[in-house]
Specification:
mainly alpha, 0% strand, signal, membrane, transmembrane, Aph-1, transmembrane helix
Length: 208
């Protein structure tokens, strides 16, 4: 979570400087800078995810050195899951904190013609982002370990696409549906990456 916060801080600084060095009266330029800031934020998040992977690899080697059997007590998959979940939770908190602050009033959502589904769609979007970060963490760590650079590229590309789709709001059908499709596909990919299979699902359902 700390690594995600640092990436957000750096992205915010870059966007802040860009805005103040540009023409703040130009609405189209400011919108473009907002899109630029979102893209920079995504790239920095993935860069810090990679930095965290390298840090955990060093820690893993140290734990293996001092253990009795020469193996680390924590597997890479466990670290990937925890890392992705941490990124997701802190990302979700920052996604909804301003929305929750606005929800205390005054006013009623939709009273000026805005969508009355603003809060419920924001909740679903936040849920999708938390799940996506968890799945991305599992896939990203496995790709780094096995040096599958095309997998890393797909993770970054899907993250950029998800972030870009949010700019379609308040046209929620155009943003929420594709994001949940990406979440489902990424979840299946992470499941297979973590060693899951249809046979394992059947064994789990049959309690064997």
């Amino acid at each position: 979570a700390f690594f995600w916060l640092v990436s957000l801080l750096l992205a915010s600084l870059i966007w802040f400087v860009s805005v103040h060095l540009s023409d703040q009266e130009d609405a189209k330029l400011q919108y473009g800078l907002l899109v630029f800031g979102a893209a920079v934020s995504v790239l920095l998040q993935e860069a810090f995810r990679f930095a965290y992977f390298k840090l955990l690899k060093k820690a893993d080697e140290g734990l293996a050195t001092i253990s009795e059997d020469g193996r680390s007590p924590i597997s890479l998959r466990q670290m990937a899951y925890v890392s992705g979940l941490s990124f997701g939770i802190i990302s979700g908190v920052f996604s909804v904190i301003n929305i929750l602050a606005d929800s205390i009033g005054p006013g009623i959502v939709g009273i000026h013609g805005d969508s009355p589904y603003y809060f419920i769609t924001s909740a679903f979007l936040t849920m999708a982002l938390v799940l996506l970060h968890t799945f991305w963490g599992v896939i990203f760590f496995d790709a780094c370990e096995k040096r599958r650079y095309w997998c890393l590229g797909l993770v970054v590309a899907s993250h950029l696409l998800t972030s870009g789709l949010t700019f379609l709001n308040p046209w929620y059908e155009a943003s929420l549906v594709p994001i949940f499709i990406i979440t489902l596909c990424t979840g299946l990919w992470a499941f297979v990456t973590a060693g899951g299979s249809f046979h394992n699902v059947l064994k789990c359902l049959s309690c064997k």
